[in-house]
Design a protein that fits this description.
Blueprint: H1 9-24, E1 32-37, H2 40-48, E2 52-57, E3 60-66
Antiparallel strand pairs: 1-3, 2-3
Amino acid sequence: MSLGANSPILPQLRNVDIQRNNALLDFESDDYHVKTAKSLREDEELVSAGFEYVTEREDVKIYRKRK
């Protein structure tokens, strides 16, 4: 089976892909709790509490969690 540009399946696949990408977007809130960590133990505590890693600056890791 070919999935060329004229295939009736291709538009359906594009719609599924668009729906999947839209599901990843959350426009409800841009408010976050922000915490920092300097050690592996602090990293573990924040990840266990539901924080996600954002970036690192000057040897300090920054984590965030939606409010």
